[in-house]
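Researcher: Here's my situation. A collaborator sent me these components and asked whether they could plausibly form a single complex. I don't have experimental data yet, so a predicted model of the whole assembly would be a useful starting point for our discussion.
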Amino acid sequence: MSLYYVQKLLYLINREPHTRKRLDTDFDVLVSEYDLTTEEISALREVDVGMLYIMGVNGQILMHYAAHRGYEWNDYIATLRRALKEHGPVRAGLYATIWD
Amino acid sequence: MSLVFAGACSHGPGITGRADRADRALRDSLYESFDRLRRAIEESKPDALIIIGAEHFANFFMDNMPAICMGMANSYTGPIEDEQWLGIKHAQVPGNEALSEQLIRSIMRDIDLSYAQEWKFDHGIMVPLHFLTPEYDLPVIPVNINCQGPPLIPLDRCYEFGRALRRACDERPERIAIIGTGGISHWPATPDSGRINEPWDREFLDHFVNNRREKLISYTDEQTYINAGQGGFEIRTYIAIAGATEGSTGEIWFYAPIPIFSVGCTIATMNVE
């Protein structure tokens, strides 16, 4: 798992229109520029916000990414709750490692 | 002339982006308090507004995360978020590079500080500005305290930063207003979004408006995470304001948990003496 790089790519997608555009036009090359696992690339390709949360992506990054990808607020929250039920607790990052 | 105004407010993106889903009376009351805060700032006739925020990975990432960073540019842009999602149109916000530089140089005598000459505001700054300087006609100097990616700066250092900021402001001829903006307890952008620990919030706010330094800096991140969620880390912005107004007390103009806004919405001021 390379949570750092997943979050780095999402951070850039959130703040740079150019990188956001590459998600749709140049996905394979874009993700190849980061040290990502197959599972992480799949979650990004499928816009699987729930799985990205389970992987440990910080909600403050994920929320902006989800909005850019067209998630309505209630759907976003429901997706995270559903992912917790389906996949179990968050695996890494802030929500998994701090005083849990 | 120095510091002429100090206050604090919430900045949750739902405040503008999900406005139509909140209890109407509560929302309108919050908006009226924001407007009262805007008028109070205007009446203080500031030349610049320093806004101490807790941004959410819009500019700063774990490849080079500053504990505290101050903007040093003549203009900024925002929001980075989708306009419709946030309910705020993209805009250019004026800054004051020269004043920023003078303040940064002064603060650095007491506190190590980063600076940024490029800054894209997210909701953490754009929501307050939407209400407080709706015409974007007042130069803004952004400050970010890292409240998102631990390890985080200790709370006593936030208070010290506020003291240093106050001294720096008091050395300047310009009239300067400061606003701290953060959540108190909240679990933003997680499955627990909408959860708010009102008793915890009220106790913290009581310490804040009474400027009880020892109480304010006694919170641990572990306690805060458990009782107030990740969003509780943003109390650092309030503590910086308390440091800037050391010896003074303040007043809460509005507090109410509004779950669809994901936070106990707060408007407060601190006396500047």
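Model: Some features of this prediction you could bring to your collaborator: Chain B is about 35% helix and 20% strand. Chain B has a mean pLDDT of 97.
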